[in-house]
Amino acid sequence: MLYKMLQFILLATVAAAAAINGPSVSPVLSRQTANLPDTFEWSSSGVLVSAKDDGRNISGIKDPSIIYHNNAYHVFASTAQAAGYSLVYFTFTDFAQANNATFHYLDQSAIGTGYRAAPEVFFFEPHNLWYLVYQNGNAAYSTNTDITDPTAWTAPTDFYSGTPDTVTANIGDGYWVDMWVICDATNCHLFSSDDNGHLYRSQTALSSFPANMSEPVIALSDTNKYALFEASNVYAYGPEQYLLLVEAFGSDGNRYFRSWNASAIEGPWTGLADTEADPFARSSNVVFADEVAWTESISHGEVVRTVVDQRLSISPCGLRYLYQGVNPNATESYDSLPWTLGLLTQTNSAC
Ligand SMILES: *[C@@H]1O[C@H](CO)[C@@H](O)[C@H](O)[C@H]1NC(C)=O
Ligand SMILES: *[C@@H]1O[C@H](CO)[C@@H](O)[C@H](O)[C@H]1NC(C)=O
Ligand SMILES: *[C@@H]1O[C@H](CO)[C@@H](O)[C@H](O)[C@H]1NC(C)=O
Ligand SMILES: *[C@@H]1O[C@H](CO)[C@@H](O)[C@H](O)[C@H]1NC(C)=O
Ligand SMILES: *[C@@H]1O[C@H](CO)[C@@H](O)[C@H](O)[C@H]1NC(C)=O
């Protein structure tokens, strides 16, 4: 990670514009009775959002986090280029307009330059604040009263005093990545991955958040690190159920998502659609309009959320998933790959 941080000192600067909007209060969690299916089918859009020719020389737009709030979609994503990773925010009212949205680079806020990647945005009701959680070598957060003001994010604060011992003991030659916070009625939980077959979970009391994250426990593991790699999402659905998604490498070398569910964020996690033959989302259960799919990887992203709170509640009906994909013919090195965003729409929703 250190080399990436050093590379970031070279990042250029571009002014970001701000819009002013007040924070809003989230709707009460609706008590869904519908269940998730145990098999998924999707259709995919074409490329929706790609890097712009705006002087930043960015290669890829990755790792989107998305929420619909005040009649607009708000997306936070990683920008990737050989020089390193940073964060971007953009907003639009209709997916057909998404690629026209102005990019606001968050290194222009107090988040600053340097290695920051894989954001997750959510509204934390007890503080009446938006939180942006991301990786910076540690797990970090920034806050903002106004999701539409990209200049107003606070400087990064780390969740941990350093890499937790449990991660150090298990990470092997992996990377500690993809932090994800979700709260229930009493605790907030911080998930992360190590590209080495381990999903970690820490917790702190809701009343203490964001302080005092515990030493992580291993929430899920796999002896095949490629089967439990990174990019986890955890959501609440139904009366008291949770959906876990983790990105894996398929036998064809392409990324896809596996899924589990549980009746508590602590687990235990039960396989829902968790195999390559029965995946949550993979090229094999996604239909593309074009004869040749623009991507064979269904990689890091998240469910389009419409409920604004720290419970991360989603409806189990008619899921949409904003993801990163890449032309399979791309030959650039990993950090310079031209990742772009696309949208999956569930086609087998029973409700
Ligand atoms: C832009 O990125 C490419 C690699 O994607 C690199 O070869 C080139 O040197 C970069 N240009 C600048 C001006 O940084
Ligand atoms: C993007 O904006 C330009 C200029 O306003 C417009 O011509 C174009 O149709 C827009 N594209 C989309 C996809 O909305
Ligand atoms: C964090 O834990 C310490 C030690 O138990 C305690 O003194 C402190 O009040 C806690 N902070 C919060 C915000 O709960
Ligand atoms: C997981 O989802 C399946 C399929 O909807 C359901 O039958 C099962 O009860 C769920 N398990 C938990 C723990 O929520
Ligand atoms: C990748 O290259 C092959 C062979 O040239 C071509 O047929 C295919 O359309 C390309 N795929 C994409 C997504 O561009």
TrEMBL record:
E.C. designation(s): 3.2.1.55
Domain of life: Eukaryota
Keywords assigned: Glycosidase, Hydrolase, Secreted, Signal
Signal peptide: 1-17
GO molecular function terms attached to this record: alpha-L-arabinofuranosidase activity
Record has Hydrolase as a keyword: yes
Primary enzyme class: hydrolase
Gene Ontology cellular component list: extracellular region
Catalytic activity: Hydrolysis of terminal non-reducing alpha-L-arabinofuranoside residues in alpha-L-arabinosides
Localisation: Secreted
InterPro entries for this protein: GH62_arabinosidase (IPR005193), Glyco_hydro_beta-prop_sf (IPR023296)
Family statement: Belongs to the glycosyl hydrolase 62 family.
Job description of the protein: Alpha-L-arabinofuranosidase involved in the hydrolysis of xylan, a major structural heterogeneous polysaccharide found in plant biomass representing the second most abundant polysaccharide in the biosphere, after cellulose.
Protein name: Alpha-L-arabinofuranosidase
Taxonomic lineage: Eukaryota, Fungi, Dikarya, Ascomycota, Pezizomycotina
Designated gene of the protein: xynC
